[in-house]
Amino acid sequence: MENTAPGADRVDALVVGAGLSGLYQLYRLRELGLRVAVFEAGEDIGGTWYWNRYPGARCDVESMSYSYSFSPELDQEWEWSERYASQPEILRYIHHVADRFGLRGDVTLCTRVTHAAYDDTAHTWRVSTDTGRAVTTRFLILASGCMSVPKDPGIPGLDRFTGEVLHTARWPREEVSFTGKRVAVVGTGCSGVQAVPVIAGRAAALTVFQRTPAYALPAHNRPLLDAETAELKSRYPQFRRAQRLSRGGTVFEPPAGSALAADEAERTAAYEAAWESGLLSGLLRTYTDILTDEKANETVAEFVRSKIRSAVDDPETAEALSPRTFPFATKRPCLDTGYYAAYNLPHVKLVDLRATPIETITPRGIRTTEGEHPLDTIVFATGFDALTGSQLAIDIVGRAEMSLREKWADGPRNHLGLMTAGFPNLFTVLGPLSPSVLSNIAVSLEQQVEWITDCIAHLNRNGLTEIDAAPEAEEAWGAHVAELADATLYPAAESWYMGSNVPGKPRVFLAYTGGLDRYRAACEASARAGYSGFVLSGEGRER
Ligand code: NAP
């Protein structure tokens, strides 16, 4: 009897991860008639939206944009309740999609892929898991997330702490009570910025330990009106098309002119309008040179600092919350609801770790150079080993015993962010050197999943067994990605975009800054040219 997924030990395609990318990849590959299995480490599907269930977790792309576009029926039937969806609502949506398209049956939960080795003779991947499963697959697709490996905060003494320790990216499924507790939040990136005001509303005392302040912009979140939902639904197909053709996966008017060419009054009016828009990229879209010219960037940075000064009562706290060490948006800005106002509450305190660094965690709290802060709960919002972390967490060995960890020792190398030479039939969704985190990932993931699906269909149609990135194309792509990044201000920041938040990680810009539109065109051009930049081989045809 023929084996079928998910219990099978032989499948056509194995997808790692059952988040938004993995579920869509499953749906598409099943349409090709392939036997597909999905292995998911979590106890349930949902990926990012399963793990990051901390209080205040919410998407920073508008709900009606941050959703699948592949099914017009799905677009019409699903109703978002808020402009920016909360984590529970997005997770409900993912469950709805999985049920509606019958995807759950091919997903094996609580199963982490640990090893994958390529058999150059059989042209298959041998994959094993932490549950002892071993599966042979022709295609291996890593849909394991661009931000799914939490970063170890690396603070001494943590194991001695007698209170509760939580990480925003590994939040427990059961209710966490902060009532009557002295709570710390360590980290002020997007996760910390979202969690702080909600925890402040529940805890007896909240101390925020900040190493680098963020640029946080107001979300102006609100319930969606029936009329506006109906209006967008009436033109959803056109809207989805515009998203797909856009630079970042969201639809907007492109900026016109330099910030420095505008006079101050004009500039301030533009920034005020962007601030009021509640859009994460509102300020970036005001002028063309915000991310390429330091002086232009400083005009926005100072505008945000002026907003912080007017939101925070205590001038010293306002100054400590004001970012000054990196240009605006060279670390991802945060979209917040009530973040700065939380510091006006009498039981909320900021500890500036630049002035008073953490020495150690003690059994009772956190000790800085200033003294001990007694605590009942520590919440780490310290981020991720982004973009490469989830791939390198798996021991992947390609052709000629080459390990991915060795190959990427100085930074990721691949062609079009999709395949890395020497690792045939291994694809990555939302991986490094693609637009991923610099775009609306809901749009990016569909583009990549569809490219991978078309590629596999092409191989099968033509009786080909393998596709691999061509080494020279990979070198050229890496150089292109680096050249574009170097023309921006991004490398000026120590950020997870640069890999510099993780000690020992190579400092390389990890995403494609050229835009999703340009990226899509490059992927389509390659496919049209019979997958130029890739080496295809097999009995059917060889080139
Ligand atoms: P993050 O942006 O990397 O922020 C981590 C924070 O922790 C930084 O303030 C960092 O300070 C601090 N930190 C790290 N290690 C520390 C240590 N040992 N001691 C003290 N402070 C430490 O991580 P994140 O906030 O989880 O966000 C990551 C990304 O996830 C975001 O940029 C965004 O793309 C995504 N995200 C999106 C949403 C949304 O859609 N709304 C929400 C949350 C996250 P330094 O800067 O000094 O290293």
Q: Which labels suit this protein?
A:
binds NADP nicotinamide-adenine-dinucleotide phosphate; 543 residues; five-stranded parallel sheet; 17% strand; 16 helices; alpha/beta
Instruction: Look at the helices and sheets and give the structural class.
Output: alpha/beta
CATH topology of the largest domain: FAD/NAD(P)-binding domain
CATH architecture of the largest domain: 3-Layer(bba) Sandwich
Kindly provide the radius of gyration, computed on alpha-carbon positions and rounded to a whole number of angstroms.
24 Å
Q: pLDDT below 50 for ≥5 consecutive residues: which ranges?
A: none
Instruction: Write the CATH homologous superfamily of the largest domain.
Output: FAD/NAD(P)-binding domain
Task: Name the CATH class of the largest domain.
Answer: Alpha Beta
Distance between the termini: 36 Å
Classify the beta-strand content into a percent band: 15-25%
Indicate the overall shape.
globular
Domain module count = 2
